[in-house]
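S2.1 Query sequence (TNase-like domain-containing protein)
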Amino acid sequence: MTTNQQATSTPTVHHAIVKSIFSGDTLVVKPLSRAAANEAEQRISLNYIIAPKLARPPTDTSAGGPSADEPYAFETREFLRKKLVGQEICYTVDFQIPQSNRLMCTVYLGKDKETGENIIESLLSEGLVELRQPSGQRANDTKYQRLVIIDEQAKSNKRGRYSDQLAEVHVRNMKWSLENPKQFVDEHKSQPPLDAIVEFVRDGNTVRCLLLPSYYLVTVQIAGIKCPMLKREGSSTNETNEPFAEEAKQYVDTRLLQRQVKVILDGVNNQNLVGTLLHPNGNIALHLLKEGLAKCVDWSLTLLQPGWR
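Output structure tokens follow.
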């Protein structure tokens, strides 16, 4: 084989930061370098495997409305979230599905695919995903044969979906809304902060959180502050973002999206919860104020619990 032939057959190694986990086999990644910061984020899917599907929300009418998690779907998502979000990965594109432009990839944790953890292998070894049935040349693919061995080991060790536990034990009881937000806040005001995962950042001071372990999906307005407003979806073309609105959203997005936080519930506004969000580096409201990306507002300052004003 010539040098040119070798170069052609060597897959390009891409480097990125994982922004979020879309599902148990699909990641949302963004460019690693500042020079490529204007490049759009993209989804990449893990080759060779099928992950159990997460529940669809009631608003997802295009997919037939709400559904329940498949067994181990949330555990698979969480396995990837805890391991990958905010971390550098490298990956190779094995092939692209023409109809959807879906990129099927092999992903490694870290800078070097020779030493980095193979994420597909890790998922299989935990018994969290299904190995796709071979087709064509794939049956003789050495990478695929290695995955077959790993999957068989997981089965022998009764890992994940191969365990003797009932599958229903590994399904979340999702609650897509609160029937009585005020009552919910009153019940939790004197309790320790709630654990939550930030699932979506709408703007600098509004996020969607999955409360744990109750699995309520709630909208939380950050208490005590107001960030510049983004243009509303579906609004007239004359409406524009307020200055620094995008920067405020990006600031929160980078630090909180799919991160685990603590939520102190302070009150209710228009059926949305108003609360204090604490992440490992402290109160996100204080950080937004220090960066000049938010201002204090009296109406929600009065809701803050003593010691947080």
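The helical segments are 3-9, 73-84, 119-125, 142-156, 181-188, 245-256, 284-290, 298-301. The longest helix spans residues 142-156.
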